[in-house]
Amino acid sequence: MLRFIYVSGLFGALLTTSCNARRDTDEHEQETHRTEAKPAPVAIRPNLADSLQLMVRQLDTARLIGCYDEDFARLMSLHHAGAQRLAAVQISQGKDSTLRAMAQHVVKSHEKDTHVLTLALRRDPPGGQEYRPGNARDPFVRRITAALAPLRQLPPRPGSVDADFATLMQLHHRSGVALAQTELAFGRNAEVKDAARRIVRDQQQEIRQFQRWLRAHTATSGR
């Protein structure tokens, strides 16, 4: 069942210090020495599985209001952001030029899709509530839940960044197609539905491209 917690935040901190008298100066020098002795933090490189799981958590905690078009747009924007994080890992760590080019396309096309969805709802805001988000038996809720379910069970991954990216992007896109098809079945906003059609078309095409890449490279590595 989807959980509906709207998560947003902005964190900041302001540290102020004042030094007066010799004692304060000595303490400051000691603190500086202790700080310099600490090892530098180790940066953790983002990976594909963690990026996908972050997307799932965000989808699970998305705040749905009970309007088909609005809720689809919110979920698809989070879904697209997840694909962009996967693509960023491939761009920074992947080796295959074909997959890197596809990853760059994902970043740009998904940004455009999200912009289109945002503008469509701004021009034609949703009306009253059309379904109950907390009702697991509601047809829209059931379709959304089914679309996201495969993301919770990661498939076996070949091991290289390139092959893992192609494998997980297939999973991601199949889920995205199912989300967009849900909008086509229930949505009412013509612009949002047009965007959903493009998402279905484009992501089905990309799924086939990822499948061809995996078949070619699996056959090559098996020789």
Structure description:
The protein starts with 20 loop residues before the first helix and ends with a helix. It has seven helices and no strands. The model is unreliable at 1-37 (pLDDT under 50). 68% of the residues lie in helices and 0% in strands. The protein is globular, with a radius of gyration of 23 Å. The chain has 223 residues and is an all-alpha fold. The protein has one domain: Ferritin (Up-down Bundle), CATH 1.20.1260.10. InterPro entries: DUF305_CopM-like (IPR005183), Ferritin-like (IPR012347). Residues 33-117, 159-214 form the DUF305 domain. Keywords: Plasmid.
What's a concise summary of this model?
This protein is an all-alpha fold. It has seven helices and no strands.
Name the shape in a single word: globular
Look at the structure and name the CATH superfamily. Answer: Ferritin, core subunit, four-helix bundle
Our count of domains comes out at: 1
Q: Could you please say which CATH topology applies here?
A: Ferritin
Helix content: 55-70%
Unreliable stretches, pLDDT < 50, 5 or more residues? Answer: 1-37
Largest sheet: none
CATH architecture: Up-down Bundle
* Top CATH class: Mainly Alpha
Chain oligomer state: single chain
Strand content: under 5%
Strand elements, count: 0
Cα end-to-end separation:
45 Å
DSSP helical segment count = 7
What topology does this entry show?
Layout: H1 21-37, H2 48-60, H3 68-93, H4 97-123, H5 139-148, H6 161-186, H7 190-221
Could you list some keywords that capture this structure?
223 residues; mainly alpha; Ferritin; 7 helices; 0% strand; globular; disordered N terminus
